[in-house]
Amino acid sequence: MARHTWDVGHHHHSDISGSVSCAVITASDSRTSSDDVSGATIRELLSAEGHSVLNSVICRDEPQLITEAVEAAIDAGARAILINGGTGIAPRDRTFDTIEALIQRPLPGFGELFRALSFEEIGSGAMLSRATAGIYRDRLLLSMPGSTEAVRLAMTRLVLPELAHISSELDS
Length: 172
Prior knowledge:
It is built from five helices and six strands; from the N terminus they run βαβαβαβαββα. With 172 residues, the protein is α/β, with parallel strands linked by helices. Helix 1 (37-48) links the parallel strand 1 and strand 2.
């Protein structure tokens, strides 16, 4: 039986680069522009990698407001919409349900990998995260927890290494 081996030093998309137009949405009932550290972290990390941030908003964790923010980001030309906050299991955490309802093509690997990486850092509490991602209207939706540490983990280990590749796949 032939055994398949992966060349871990070569990625099929290693030559894909370029700026992706992004929008950042912070879903929170308590954050303001002066204390939205997670939203600022996302913007800073995107900019540092050469991606553009078309708009950034804070909206209450309400399905209609989140949906309106996503639609406004698409209307502004965003190819990727990065949402932070509202992915827990508290009654007020409504972001996951809202984003899941919008997603037309899920990317379950994002949530699975995020929880696996989180488990390495925080242990069993990682199972409480409902981080999710998928495609909506040919745009990438990425929904991650609101904690700055979780945002940094998702961005550096999952989002930034694949953002240009995903965007190019959506354009093909």
